[in-house]
């Protein structure tokens, strides 16, 4: 109880003024929690406002075209969240009459909702005493209690969830859960935590044993894979181009891109023109090929680094399924493509 009281006191005096903290409406809480998965609040907040304005209710989101949802999400990354968000909105709106499940177990059945998100929604909206455990909570608990168990191991996930549940203020789980996450985000930060003014500096084992930088422990990440992307940016009479929608289970499923040729390494123009995929893309067209960026754009994802070049394919011949160049900005695209378009498109098309 000492930890709970100190944490609550700190929270009430230091918490940020955030829009989803002014409501217990499940739609708003769910939307914010999905958006803030693997995303800093500073980055996610503008998107939250955009979504609430565009889709004030779960019914509005459910009825929206998938491409519109992805376009509004553009730049936030981890696009599977947006696809799951839309699917869940349709399920809640059309199968549950707009009413979100009112329990931790019920919420877990929603697509894209895991233990953390279900705990957050259940405690904040329905006062169900279930503890949240996110990156901030892992860090706070690992340091205060001096826990060495890796946070991304099966044993660690169980141990930290059990401890968080034991510490939870059962009478006010919503405040406790938000307090411990906020404390990790603002005070017990990954780098340069504010140990001198910490309300737990008399109890923190990491501070006592000079282990702040060592905790929490995390198993080594999967080796990062390098991939080499060659985008074919068709320029048809300075009026049209070609976009394709990505499919499958890989990155950016559902987003649009220029025709892509992946190679095993960086290649030059001669190598590109020899590739079967390139020949198939241009068919029998008369083209002029030029490289837009000599130095590849390096786009870093969690387990992949993409080394990307954009090849401009000029042609005077019309191509089937081409679109007006000025319409490119209407399509949801990865941020890698968006950044390129900001440099490539004439100002009139932006």
Automatic annotation (TrEMBL):
Belongs to the Nth/MutY family. Binds 1 [4Fe-4S] cluster. This is Adenine DNA glycosylase. It catalyses: Hydrolyzes free adenine bases from 7,8-dihydro-8-oxoguanine:adenine mismatched double-stranded DNA, leaving an apurinic site. Adenine glycosylase active on G-A mispairs. MutY also corrects error-prone DNA synthesis past GO lesions which are due to the oxidatively damaged form of guanine: 7,8-dihydro-8-oxoguanine (8-oxo-dGTP). Its EC number is 3.2.2.31. Pfam families: EndIII_4Fe-2S (PF10576), HHH (PF00633), HhH-GPD (PF00730), NUDIX_4 (PF14815). It is an enzyme of class 3 (hydrolase). PANTHER family: ADENINE DNA GLYCOSYLASE. Its cofactor is [4Fe-4S] cluster. Residues 35-186 form the HhH-GPD domain. Keywords: 4Fe-4S, DNA damage, DNA repair, Glycosidase, Hydrolase, Iron, Iron-sulfur, Metal-binding. InterPro entries: A/G_AdeGlyc_MutY, DNA_glycosylase, Endonuclease3_FeS-loop_motif, Endouclease-III_FeS-bd_BS, HhH-GPD_domain, HhH_base_excis_C, HhH_motif, MIG/MutY.
């Amino acid at each position: 109880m000492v930890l709970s009281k100190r944490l609550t006191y700190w929270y009430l005096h230091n918490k940020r003024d955030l829009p989803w903290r002014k409501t217990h409406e499940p739609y708003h809480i769910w939307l914010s929690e999905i958006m803030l998965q693997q995303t800093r609040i500073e980055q996610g907040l503008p998107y939250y406002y955009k979504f609430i304005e565009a889709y004030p209710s779960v019914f509005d989101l459910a009825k929206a075209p998938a491409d519109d949802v992805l376009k509004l999400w553009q730049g936030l990354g981890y696009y599977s969240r947006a696809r799951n968000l839309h699917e869940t909105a349709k399920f809640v709106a059309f199968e549950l009459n707009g009413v979100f499940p009112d329990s931790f177990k019920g919420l877990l059945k929603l697509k894209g909702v895991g233990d953390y998100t279900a705990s957050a929604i259940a405690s904040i909206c329905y006062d169900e005493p279930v503890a949240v455990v996110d990156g901030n909570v892992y860090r706070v608990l690992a340091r205060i209690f001096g826990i060495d168990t890796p946070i991304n191991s099966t044993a660690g996930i169980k141990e930290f969830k059990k401890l968080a549940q034991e510490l939870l203020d059962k009478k006010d789980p919503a405040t406790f859960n938000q307090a411990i996450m906020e404390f990790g985000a603002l005070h017990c930060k990954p780098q340069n935590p504010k140990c001198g003014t910490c309300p737990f500096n008399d109890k923190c084992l990491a501070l006592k044993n000079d282990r702040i930088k060592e905790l929490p422990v995390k198993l080594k990440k999967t080796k990062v894979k390098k991939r080499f992307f060659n985008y074919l940016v068709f320029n048809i009479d300075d009026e049209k181009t070609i976009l394709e929608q990505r499919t499958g289970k890989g990155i950016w499923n559902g987003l649009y891109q220029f025709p892509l040729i992946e190679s095993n390494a960086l290649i030059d123009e001669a190598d590109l023109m020899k590739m079967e995929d390139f020949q198939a893309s241009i068919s029998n067209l008369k083209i002029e090929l030029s490289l837009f960026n000599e130095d590849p754009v390096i786009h870093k994802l969690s387990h992949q680094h993409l080394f990307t070049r954009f090849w401009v394919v000029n042609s005077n011949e019309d191509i089937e399924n081409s679109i007006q160049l000025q319409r490119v900005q209407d399509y949801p695209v990865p941020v890698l493509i968006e950044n390129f378009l900001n440099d490539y498109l004439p100002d009139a098309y932006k």
